[in-house]
TrEMBL record:
Catalytic activity line of the entry: epoxyqueuosine(34) in tRNA + AH2 = queuosine(34) in tRNA + A + H2O
Entry keyword set: 4Fe-4S, Disulfide bond, Iron, Iron-sulfur, Metal-binding, Oxidoreductase, Queuosine biosynthesis, Redox-active center, tRNA processing
Protein name: Epoxyqueuosine reductase QueH
Broad enzyme group: oxidoreductase
Cited function: Catalyzes the conversion of epoxyqueuosine (oQ) to queuosine (Q), which is a hypermodified base found in the wobble positions of tRNA(Asp), tRNA(Asn), tRNA(His) and tRNA(Tyr).
InterPro entries: QueH (IPR003828)
Disulfide bridge partners, by residue number: C163-C165
UniProt xrefs under PANTHER family: EPOXYQUEUOSINE REDUCTASE QUEH (PTHR36701:SF1)
EC number: 1.17.99.6
Source domain of life: Bacteria
Pathway as given in its UniProt record: tRNA modification; tRNA-queuosine biosynthesis
Amino acid sequence: MNILLHICCANCAIYPLEVLRARNLRVHGYFFNHNIHPYQEYSRRLQAVRHWAAATNLDVTYRDEYRLEEFLAQVAAAPEKRCDYCYRSRLEETARAAAEQGFAAFSTSLLYSRYQQHDHLRELGEQVGRRHGVKFHYDDFRVGWQQGIQASKALGLYRQQYCGCIYSEKDRYHPRVGS
């Protein structure tokens, strides 16, 4: 079976790629991350994926689109729902590409992170998969959290400190109310 794997960053894709390949799935990567800001962060992550993909012999389709205005317009009115838009928009584009290119299924490296909302990701993935007529492959890749971290350090990959959106970066530095 061939599967299109949305890649949020190289670090999060290491373990999922190993698991999917170990199951004899033919994996093709898909980089579309218009949520990552600022541009320097987006660029670092894109270059890390390019480096890692070359080292692991993974073919990747790169949608190198820095769409700050679109992302902000979609989440500015309700930043507490930013994850919903972020997940949905990237899964939607991955499912669309998977269907157009004849993949049997699609998935996302977001399922590797212990910080992501797995139930919501699964629900959205299944919804957009049905809409595009392609199966969403859910796997709880969090079991390989430490293995992925060790591998990314051994490879010398750029390791980000937040999910990628400007709101998440703010949360890293700005004191929380009541703190």
